[in-house]
Amino acid sequence: MEAIAYFLQHTGRKNETLPALAEQQEAYARLCESQGFQSVATFTDYQGGSHSRRGYRRLVDYLQQPGRGFTMVALSLVQELAAGPKDAAKRILELDELGARVVSLDMEGVDPLDEALAQWRQLRSRDKLSDRALDSLRNKAMRGFGLGKTPYGYCIGESGRLEIVKQEAAVVERIYGMYLERDMGLRLIARGLNEAGTPTRRGSPWSVVKVRDNLKNR
User: Fold this and answer.
1) C-alpha to C-alpha distance for 172 and 13, rounded to whole angstroms
2) Torsion sign across C-alpha atoms 90, 93, 98, 102
């Protein structure tokens, strides 16, 4: 599997929570060696620098190149991926949509998206967001209203509810058929869809991550 590192280097006053760049690089090298990953690129941003997040945008551009397969993106701290946990979660989802799995160098076994969402919940709790408001959002989702990222196979209708997109729904049915009836693995399903010229929503190639997410999304 190919691996990419996203580093954040502090400038000026040292950030006690952020490891030095050399420590991040060493942790990344150990991860690649222990897991058998092939490092193909690294990108660095500078905390408090004038060129804020240009490294991240270059990382996104790199993943958008045609023919890129399943890739792992390693970062030191989830909270350093963006200015706040909400934006960090959005960026993790953005990278996932591009066929990359985000892993944290400092929290082995912890899902970075779960960590970002947990931090966001804590922040919202401090802002006194009531349980009633959270329950309202959950109930709205259960009634079919679209919240957050629209699942593949659906669109948001005029009423705000999820509506089936027939062309995408047919692809979802095909994915489940390949998985359940033909006992095909994720990589073979992605290859079959790409060889058949089946487009994703964005017109990019199918990846193992995209196939997996469709199979897991209830």
Assistant:
1) 50
2) positive
pLDDT in tens, 102-144: 887 765 556 777 777 777 777 666 555 455 655 665 666 666 6
In Å, what is the CA distance from 38 to each residue of 28, 30, 215? 11, 12, 27
Instruction: Specify the length of the chain in residues.
Output: 218
CB within 8 Å of 44: residues ≥ 6 apart: 6, 7, 8, 9, 21, 55
Q: Taking the C-alpha atoms of 186, 187, 188 and 193 in order, what is their torsion angle to the nearest 10 degrees?
A: 90
| pTM of this structure | 0.52
Residue 205 DSSP one-character state: P
| Helix 186-195 × helix 166-180 angle, to 10° | 130
